[in-house]
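Section handout 9: paired folding examples.
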Amino acid sequence: NGGIGYVLSMTGWCFILWLWTPLYADMLRHVVVVPLMAVGGFTNAAVAIANSPTAWFVVVLATCAFVTLVIAGGMKTYARVQKICFWTGNLGLLAVLILLFTGNPESFPSRFDQGFADFFGVQNAYASIRTAAQDLGPTTPLWGGGFGAIMLLLPFLAFFNLWPNWGATLYGEIKGSQDVKKNIAGMTYSLLGTTALAILFLLAIDRAVGFDFFMESNAVFWQHRWDPSSSPLILPVWPYPVFFALFGLTSPVLQGLIILAMSAWFFGWAGTIYLSSTRILFSASFDRLLPEAVARISPRTRTPHIALLIMVIPGIIVSVFYIWDFFSFKSLTIVSTLVIAITFLGTSLAATVLPFTRKEMYKASPISKFALGPIPLVSVFGAAFSGFLLFLLYQWFFDPHELYGISYRNTTSLIFIGLLYLLALVLYLGMRWYRTRGGIDVNKIYGEIPVE
């Protein structure tokens, strides 16, 4: 249904990405700016940047400037940036993995203490973390735990593993995008690659640091950051896992090169914050459900620059509310992280019913060749993924074990997200009414997928 698809897409790929602007910037300062300042010997500046709202907002502006630059340059430009960043990041990750796997676990506590003292002026960090963690109780094991524990961990893992196919909305601009095999391969390999690297990295952390300490250090940092009154300030900066590998090195130059290489992961990925959104806005405008100006593109780069501004400007405004927590804005946005799952659920349900509701369209598609007996394979996979997403949404929304902190109990956050969906619905109905008055039948636009 055009209306449902419009509301899900506009909320899940556009409105909600405004909220990710301060989060992307937070990643930039914690994995790039703060580590580089620390390695460069600017201890006070590193700690200040990690804790200053003003510094965070400056990084927001830098993030938006970089993202605007690479997106405005067009898909070819961003593809080149991604390729460079991908291979540079892989070199950095290889160096980190080698250092972790060859490190001496017995000497890690002393190296960690020395590293945090040199980089951030924190004394006796290792013992302080272990002591504080006893009260916080992070107990997720790396091994074992039973099937039930694994299922309850999945809603956490899905937050990162729903992202590898975030760029699927861009496939229409990719060469050979109408080749089903290429699309399936691209999605499959990205998921398998991400999962394999995550497992390898966790094994390396466990080998060099101990998985329990890895969990404890994160618990100590995030508990204080989200609720300063509940725990003392022990770590003024995020315990970036790359530090665990670098603290054994004596060369600041080598440390800096590895951090620079690892920072390439952020710069190669950062454009995704608005790239898909601009294409959704362009499509909605092309379908006459947004003003025509939104679909206006640069003649040179073929980039929808008006759509880009629609994402960047509200993103900066939202960042102000988020960073300084005006009107308790942070608590309003907590549930927003599951909106991507709701969007994917709409896609999965659409895929499940497509062979039965649009039979001619389905038969004309290359995917009609794939079936499990009489049942279309797209329906099998669509139903399976829909079931998985419904399980995730149940855990997030109802949270019977009170594990995730984004449930219906946060009523203000649910109301906020509901208002975003309502805004998309009002926009759809308003544009539909306006186009009908102008003699355009929106039903015909959404009746069939247009020929490219």
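Moving on to protein 2 of 2.
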Amino acid sequence: MTAGAGAITAAADLARRPVTLARATAHLALSLGLRGHVEEATAVGPVARAQAVAAGADWVLAEALISIGHVAGLGGDPAAAVAVLDEAAEVGTRCGFAWAVRSARWMRADLAAAAGAHDEADTLARRAALDLDEQDDVTGWLAALGGRFGYAPRRPDPVAARGC
């Protein structure tokens, strides 16, 4: 386990509130996945999901689902990633957690682009950028817009892909 993952695990061990524990576990799953420990992350993700459900915190459930979806994509299971990210967007919409909705959309855009679904990737990235603009989330907006322009050269008609 890496030092970062160890710190998250230590934080989870110290968590007294169920919401804090669920959130720490969700971040642990994502951290493990991003560091290449996909199998371990795949096992931790459902624990975070169950903890979030038990805590009754839909916003943390949305975060856990984003971690699970991202790890599924890293693990080479784009169909599972899409399904879980769509669920994260639904949960985020239901509880008013706009960050989760936007994050799920731009992650879905990346998956669509990787699968060669350029029009879908462009549509998702455009929607994420518009949503981010409404929330004054400049960092997220730049990431979504950067992704959108990154998809343009892969499209059959890159000139048509330039418009925002």
